[in-house]
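Q: Now give one record:
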Amino acid sequence: MDGKPRLLDQVRDQIRLKHYSIRTERVYCEWIKRYVRFHNYRHPLEMGAPELEAFLSDLAVRRDVSASTQNQALAALLFLYKQVLKQDLPWLGEVVRAKKPARLPVVLSISEVQQVLGSLDGEVGLIARLLYGGGLRLMEGVRLRIKDVDFSRNEIVIRDGKGQKDRVTVMPASLVDPLKQHIARTRALHQLELADGRGDVYLPDALARKYPNAPWEWAWQYVFPAPGLSVDPRSGSVRRHHLDEKRIQRAFKRAVKESGLAKLATPHTLRHSFATHLLESGQDIRTVQELLGHADVKTTMIYTHVLNRGGLAVLSPLDRI
């Protein structure tokens, strides 16, 4: 034994060095394990483009995975070769990437949004209204910190969103009072935890080292804390995490069913609906792009294809008769 870390330990070290999420860590490690198993436990340094192609082809042909899943596997393996094994990858251009099919997002009408939200109450209902009212992604909603809710400016700051970018979005005026009441209850819970010798929350490694007292400070607490304590899978610390996103997903699925909607709507549909309804009301597409945090306006333009004006806003010839 030369004391060199195992391959997956090296992968985890690099992922944490770059401050990727625990979800990304788990997903990347799982794909790397599947890749190595697929090739009878050969070391990745002994393999290259042909082996990578064979693995990705097996996913598409035999396992019939989607293009996005196949690309996720490719991203994990490229991370392994580039960031962990420090390979130049001269064969990278030979790897065929799956083309993601162009699909229009599912969008609810304003009345359908009202129906679904009307079936949701409590903190789950509050989060769902935030997702729609500010165009948040689900994880951005549950990970929201106290310091990023600005009542004086009626805005919400999204930290480290998709692509590790920050952005500012609107706080719905109708949610100001409910949010204040919810945060007051959250603060009372935090005070009780401090008195009990707890009250700390997870912070990314760099922040936790730079500000050692920050995990106990009120500003860093989650707006939507979990009802119970849990073990941090990285540090082993027992603390209160944010609300489990699966709870919102399950409640939203029930609400859609109760509303009788024949649409495959998820909590992310509220973000799509936010963008579409803003464009319908005449908001500039660049403003919507900024609120959503899209790097390219082409991403935002997909919502122009689902505006409530019929296909491509064209008047059907039947309606001219």
